[in-house]
Amino acid sequence: MTELPKMKIAEARDALRKGDVTAIELTEACLKAIDGAGPLNAFVHHTPEIATEQARAADARVKAGDAPALCGIPLGIKDLFCTKGVPSQAASRILQGFRPEYESTVTSQLFDAGAVMLGKLNMDEFAMGSSNETSTYGDVVNPWRAGNDETKLTPGGSSGGSAAAVAADLCLGATGTDTGGSIRQPAAFTGITGIKPTYGRCSRWGIVAFASSLDQAGPMAKDVRDAAILLQAMCGHDPKDSTSADLPVPDFESMLTGDIKGKVIGIPREYRMDGMPDEIEALWSEGRKMLQDAGAELRDISLPHTKYALPAYYVIAPAEASSNLARYDGVRYGHRATLSQGDGITEMYEKTRAEGFGDEVKRRVMIGTYVLSAGFYDAYYNRARKVRTLIKRDFETVFAEGIDAILTPATPSSAFALGQEQADPVQMYLNDVFTVTVNLAGLPGIAVPAGLDRKGLPLGLQLIGRPWEEGDLLNTAYALERAAGFVDKPAKWW
Amino acid sequence: MSIDTETAARVAKLARIKVEDEALEGLAQDFNTILGFIEQLQEVDVEGIEPMTGVTPMRLKRRPDGVTDGGMQDKVLSNAPDAREGFFAVPKVVE
After folding, report:
1. Annotated active-site positions of A, please?
2. How many structural domains compose chain B?
3. With contact defined as beta carbons under 8 Å apart, do A364 and B2 qualify?
4. Kind and range of the H or E element at A464?
5. Which of A235, A272, A287, A312 has the fewest other C-beta atoms within 10 Å?
6. What is the mean pLDDT of chain A?
7. How far, CA to CA in Å, does A237 sit from each of A35, A204, A211, A357?
8. Which of A93, A196, A366 to mutate against chain B (most B CBs within 10 Å)?
């Protein structure tokens, strides 16, 4: 039997049902792995009491022959999810001390399915970042290193803690959220699988909002099957989120046949970027061959507005953020600045927000404020929303022409060194160049590890699917995963 | 379009974020970098294109306009930095 925390969910599920392992054993092994992984800084709030209680309940349900899908499976939860009675601060100082009186819909569903919560995972502050360097808890360190080089690498962001925890086998799976690539980019940087479902698949209720028209939750897992199992439990209609889709959720796992014969895979020419490293280009071309060998038909396609996706995103996301983050005012929850004699309510707002928000969050809130301000609303915000319509139309056109899925690189590079790209905000934004189109168009996208670069770091490929067809997308990803045969793990140094 | 420190100060004020005078220069520079990047959008022909309001076509659900929740004052106030006698307390607003 595999060492317990290294188990995949499907494997642990079977072992639990057979009685080869108990949920308590599995949970304790994960808690021990977490205790030994301080240098990664992935888990920032530990919940061993909750985990133990949930594991005991899971064992009782297994014994009673009443084990739901995720019964006894230990997970890490991104700090963006509100978890009842447990600190949930979106990695921001402004939410220090906040303990929600309620549970997010996604985590409720996971717990109803029997999952065990090990703790809360580090992330970029308010999910704004691509390197997990904007967190109030400090950087997350990628468990991967470039060979013997001890340079600390980023796990990506914003779901950097989730990615590092899964890659380092501290938990069996984790929740993530993705507004511009925050599940897929860190998954690619750490050699794991992450899927962002169609906008509206997962309820956003109880997830701290960044950009509401783009935010979606999704799983980060050790392989495609585990991603399918987790996604199944996370999805579904929720009356508390008016944008949640009232559509049946198919059985994703049962759709993993690996048979993609006759599927048409689009290769968008606009994703061949100037200055793209040859290793990324080579991986992409290997991916094409793998899918072709598996029986898919490849077709060159054009998504002409791709180039404008990032600039449109950096209008729309900050605009929505400036509105969403207006609620952090020092009145209802979280941090309030100490006031001086004579300070009124405006000073309270201004000082509280100056102390509570980090630099990147301030930057985005203010950019959002600017693009929404009188005189600029049409030139920036409305124009970006029109460009968004065009970006979505690009995808609709190719899907109407018979494309089933689109293959692209997941990221423009492998994991880079912490501290390397902090100086220039736009340089950091370019990390999301291949992933952000998917959020703007509301589509499902999955990152699958497909190889290592010359430095020995993982690289991922992205598949983009038709709306609501996550099952089909997961199956194509499953075929790609089988062909790529990626099994590498980071060597333990922490 | 170039953002000067005065505009940066105005935006900070609108966003209710206190920015010290000596930080305005750097902030204005950041704005210029980001807005320079966003400027590419001006190239796109958007004539006759509708701005997107929702990414998935859906009709919002209707429900009777009735009270379905409430009566949890303690829970609502439990995370407040300053709650007194069942209220959120803030500095004096009206003289």
Report:
1. 78, 158, 182
2. 1
3. no
4. strand A458-465
5. A272
6. 97
7. 36, 10, 20, 33
8. A366
Q: Do residue A243 and residue B54 have CB atoms under 8 angstroms apart?
A: yes
Helix (H, G, I), strand (E, B) or coil at A19: coil
Give residue A129's identity as a one-letter amino acid code: G
Task: Go through chain A and tell me how many residues it has.
Answer: 494
The pair of three-digit structure tokens given for residue A454, joined into one six-digit string: 């010359």
Using pLDDT thresholds of 50, 70 and 90, give the confidence band for residue A181.
Answer: very high
From residue A128, alpha-carbon distances to A76, A131, A314, A365 in Å are 20, 9, 11, 11
- Measured between CA atoms, how close is A91 to chain B, in angstroms? 17
Q: Does domain A4-262+405-484 have CATH number 3.90.1300.10?
A: yes
Q: Is B9 a member of any domain?
A: yes
Q: Where are the domains of chain A?
A: 4-262+405-484, 307-379
Q: A439-467: buried (b, 16+ CB within 10 Å) or exposed (e) per residue?
A: bbbbbbbbbbbbbbbeebbbbbbbbbbbb
In a domain, B10, yes or no: yes
Kindly identify which residue of chain A lies nearest to residue B92, measuring between CA atoms: A344
Is the per-residue pLDDT at A426 higher than 70? yes
Q: Do A390 and B46 touch (CB under 8 A)?
A: yes
Give SS3 for A104: coil
- Scanning A256-275 for CB atoms below 8 A from B yields none
Tell me the torsion sign for CA atoms B79, B80, B83, B88: negative
B1: pLDDT confidence band, cut at 50, 70 and 90?
low
Decide if B89 is inside a domain. Answer: no
Number of Cβ within 10 Å of residue A354's Cβ equals 17
Which pTM value belongs to this model?
0.97
Cβ-defined contact of B39 to A99 (cutoff 8 Å): no
Nearest CA in chain B to A390: B49
Does a structural domain hold residue B24?
Answer: yes
Q: Which two tokens stand for residue A98?
A: 């906040």
The 8-class DSSP code of residue A265 comes to E
For residue B13, the enclosing domain spans 5-42
CA nearest to A77, candidates A38, A55, A106: A106
Q: For residues A441 and B54, what is the distance between their CA atoms, to the nearest angstrom?
A: 10
- For chain A, what percent of residues have pLDDT higher than 70? 99
Q: What is the ipTM of this complex?
A: 0.96
B44 vs A383: CB contact, 8 Å cut-off?
yes
Per residue in A234-273, pLDDT (tens digit) is 999 999 999 999 999 999 999 999 999 999 999 999 999 8
Measure Cα distances from A424 to A93, A133, A360, B30 in Å: 23, 13, 11, 8
Tell me the nearest-neighbour CA distance from A430 into chain B, angstroms: 11
Q: Is the dihedral of CA A15, A42, A212, A198 positive or negative?
A: negative
pLDDT digits (tens, 9 = 90+) for A31-64: 999 999 999 999 999 999 999 999 999 999 999 9
The pLDDT, as a whole number, for residue A411 is 96
